[in-house]
Amino acid sequence: MTKVLLVAEHDGAQLNLATAKALSCATQIGETDVVVFCDGANAVCDAAAKLSGAQRILKVSRSENAKPLAAVFAPQIAEMAADYTHILVPSTTFGKDIQPRVAALLGAPQVSDIMSVEGPRKFKRPIYAGNVIVTIDVPEAAKVVGTVRTASFKAADGGASAEVVNVSVDTDLPTHTRYIALEAHASERPDLQSANRVVSGGRGVGSAENFALIYSLADKIGAAAGASRAAVDAGYVPNDMQVGQTGKIIAPDLYIAVGISGAIQHLTGIKDAGTIVAINKDGEAPIFGVADLGLVGDLFAIVPELEKQLG
Amino acid sequence: MKIIVCIKRVIDYNVRVQINREGDGVVTDGVKMSVNPFDEIAVEEALRIRERGEAEEVIAVSVGTSQSQQQLRTALAMGADRAILIETDDDMQPLVVARVFQKLVEREKPGLVLMGKQAIDDDANQTGQMLAALWNRPQATSASKLELTGDSARATREVDAGLEVIEFDLPAVVTTDLRLNEPRFVKMPDIMKAKRKPMETIALSELSIDLPTQLAQSNYEPPPERQAGRIVDSVEELVAALREKGVV
C-alpha cells in the first residue's frame, strides 16, 4: 500500500508555505503523514495539522532538531522511512540539501523537482533549466524519494484538524556540523517565494537607488520584490531577491517584470505565474513573448504612473 | 591536504538544447561540450585554497565516457595537479556517481571534496549530498563563501531565506554556488602544460561498485509554451486590463 511521508519545512515559528504545496503533490500519490523535526515548535505542528489532506502530523522534537542541518535530519528521516513507500520534501534549498542524503542512506535513486504526478511511481520533472520535460519511472524495487517543485502545485487548503503525534527517533546523530547563523535580509514585504504578487526589476532599472521605484510599487500593491540575475550580478539588490532557474522559481497570481529583458533562465522561474506584466523600453525583448500584458516605454515614467493609478 | 574536485562533461551552457527525433534524449552529436559551470567554480576554489598554502594537491575526477578526458584536461589547464577518469559508456545517475566518488575518496583520503551544486544537464542537485552521506561526513551545499581553519571550515550557504552560515569538521563535501568565485581564464601555455600532467583512467568495472537501481527516463518533451498576450498602449489601458482580470 502506498504511504507517503512528507517532511515539513519551517523556521521554528512558522510553517513554510512550500509544505502546503508539496502536500498537494503528496496526496495525489497516496495517504500522507507530515513529519515536523523541531525543538518545541508547537505552532508549526498546529499549522501543519490544519492542512487539508494530512493524515497525521508526526512531531519529532529533540534539541538537535532546533535548526535544519541535513546531516542531522537525514538519518532520522531514513529511519522513519521503513513505514513508508514514498518520502517527499519541498524542492527548496532546505529540501535539496536534505533529501539526497536521505536517498543515499536508503540506497534509493532520487527524483528531483517533481512537477506532476502521472502515477504512484511515475512523475514528470524539468531538466536542462526547464527547457526539456522528462518522464521518470521509479523501479518497483526502490523506495520513491523525491523533491517537489512547489511552483507546480497549489497549496493545500486549511481548515482540517489532523492529529499531532509525538514520535521519538533515537538515531545517533553526528556533531560534525554546527549551525552558526542565518543572515536574513530584513524586509517588511511578503516572502518572495510564497507571495501572491511580485514586482521584479532588471538591469533596465539601472542602479540600486532606482530600485526604490520597484519597492514603492510593490508596497503599493502588497507585493514581494524580486529581481533578474542581471540586476543581482550588477549589485543592485541582494542575491536572495533573484527570480529564475538559478534563483527562486515562483508562481504568484500577478508578476510585474520591470526593465527585465527575459533571459531564458529568468523565464523558467516565472512560467507558472498567473498573469505576467512586462514593462520594457525594448519592444523586441523576449519577456513580451510570455507576458499576458505588455507595455513598451520608459519604466521611469510608467512605474510611478502605474503606482498612482493603482491607488 | 589533498582536494578532490568532481567535474562533469555537459552540453555547453550557451547551446540551445534540442530533443532528439525519438524523444528519448537530447541531441549531442556535433554539440559543444564543456565543464559543468558550477564544477568550474569548484576547480577555481580548490586552486585558490592550494595557492593560499592550505592544500598541497588538487585532483580532478570525472565519471563518464573517454571524451570526458577533454574536460579533465581543462581542469588540469586551470591548474589541477592530476586527473582521474572513471570510464564508462553507461548512463550514470547521481547515486552511482556518488558511490564511485566514495571509492576514490577511500583511496585518496582528501581533506575536502568540491563539486558544483548541480549539473546544468539533469539539474539533479544530488551527488555531493549523496557522497557526504555515504562517506558519513559533513556537507555544505550551495556555498558562496568558504573559509578553512585547520581541521574545520566555515561556509556561507545561499538559502531561500538569505545566507546561512555553518561550521563543520574536515574532511567534508562542499558544493559550490555561482557567487563563490569567478573562474580564471585558461591561457595557451597552460593548455600545453596540461598535456604533460598525469591522467589516470580506470574502468568502472574495476571498482566493483554495487550498482543501485536507476530511474527510467523517457518521453523527452518541450515544456508547455506560454502564449504571448497583448501589448497595451498606456498605463490607463494596463490598469483597466489588470482590474478586468481581477488581479489588482
Short description:
Chain A has 311 residues and is an alpha/beta fold.
Describe the overall structure.
The complex is a heterodimer of chains A (311) and B (248). Chain A is an alpha/beta fold. Chain A folds into two domains: 3-166, Rossmann fold, CATH 3.40.50; 197-309, Rossmann fold (3-Layer(aba) Sandwich). Helix content of chain A is 25%, strand content 28%. Chain A contains eight helices and 16 strands. Chain A has helices at residues 17-29, 42-49, 70-80, 93-106, 211-220, 229-233, 264-268, 299-309, and strands spanning 3-7, 31-38, 54-61, 86-90, 110-114, 116-119, 122-127, 132-137, 144-148, 163-166, 177-184, 197-201, 224-227, 254-258, 275-280, 293-296. A seven-stranded parallel beta sheet of chain A has the order 5-9-4-1-2-3-10, with helices on both faces. A five-stranded parallel beta sheet of chain A has the order 13-12-14-15-16. A three-stranded antiparallel beta sheet of chain A has the order 6-7-8. In chain A, helix 3 packs across helix 4 and helix 5 runs parallel beside helix 8. The radius of gyration of chain A is 21 Å and the shape is globular. The mean pLDDT of chain A is 95. With 248 residues, chain B is α/β, with parallel strands linked by helices. Chain B has a single domain (2-213), classed as Rossmann fold. Helix content of chain B is 27%, strand content 31%. Chain B has six helices and 13 strands. In chain B, the strands form two sheets. A nine-stranded mixed beta sheet of chain B has the order 9-8-7-10-6-1-4-5-11, with helices on both faces. Chain B has a two-stranded antiparallel ribbon with strand order 2-3. In chain B, helix 2 (69-78) crosses helix 5 and helix 3 (94-108) packs across helix 4. The longest helix of chain B has 15 residues, at 37-51.
